[in-house]
Write a structure and sequence with these properties.
223 residues, alpha/beta, 7 helices, 7 strands, 15% strand, globular
């Protein structure tokens, strides 16, 4: 008999409020909702506007040169827009670079959904996103490259880009939240390290979106 998948990992935004039930507005979210994010054209909007009217899957990535983030977002790109629209769910990626890196990153990954940046990492900090790597045995099902090949590709992209930068703080970790409408919080996963992603299929199930089979679309890359 096949092993059943592990239940999703849900973490509260703050350890001070670990008893708070899902669906209630934490103080951190009120603060974060007032902060501004920036789109690919440099337009600034309040973070809270992204989930004011509908539920939203909000994925914070480490930085745009991170190979694990690139491969995770490549799998997010495979989610058909019509499935999200039918479920009235928005899919949003947030990075921490300058907004000038958004359009090249979307071109690289084929990501067609919403994407913004939090250049000063204000929202990352308010929501308790971790810095540094914590050792775990977790292996993201969405990462195909090994550490060596992925790191080489990331460094090459940094060196051949228009400006040599890491497009964000390399020590910053990300996370995945399901928010809205309004102040509701349904799910929070704070990544412990670069491979500790919330499985996309689990997140889609939680919002009632038909899951996508990612496992048969790539081969393991190992050099």
């Amino acid at each position: 008999m096949a092993n059943l998948p592990a239940p999703p990992i849900t973490r509260q935004i703050s350890p001070r409020d670990r008893a708070r039930p899902s669906g209630r507005e934490p103080g951190e979210l009120r603060d974060a909702a007032r902060r501004l994010v920036v789109d690919g054209d440099g337009q600034r909007i309040p973070f809270g506007a992204l989930f004011r009217e509908h539920r939203a899957i909000v994925v914070f990535v480490r930085h745009f040169l991170c190979y694990t983030c690139k491969e995770y977002v490549e799998d997010l790109a495979k989610i058909p827009k019509n499935l999200l629209q039918d479920a009235k769910v928005r899919l949003i990626v947030i990075g921490q670079s300058s907004h000038h890196h958004i359009k090249p990153f979307c071109s690289l990954t084929g990501y067609p959904h919403e994407i913004y940046v939090d250049p000063e990492r204000e929202i990352y900090k308010i929501l308790g996103m971790k810095r540094g790597e914590a050792a775990t045995s977790v292996q993201s099902p969405h990462v195909k490259s090994n550490l060596l090949s992925g790191s080489i590709r990331s460094m090459w992209r940094a060196m051949t880009g228009p400006a040599f930068d890491f497009q964000g703080d390399p020590a910053q970790q990300g996370g995945t939240l399901i928010l809205g409408p309004g102040s509701k919080v349904h799910f929070v996963h704070l990544d412990k390290n670069r491979l500790d992603h919330a499985p996309i299929s689990t997140v889609l199930q939680l919002v009632g979106v038909k899951t996508v089979n990612f496992t048969n679309k790539h081969q393991i890359i190992d050099i």
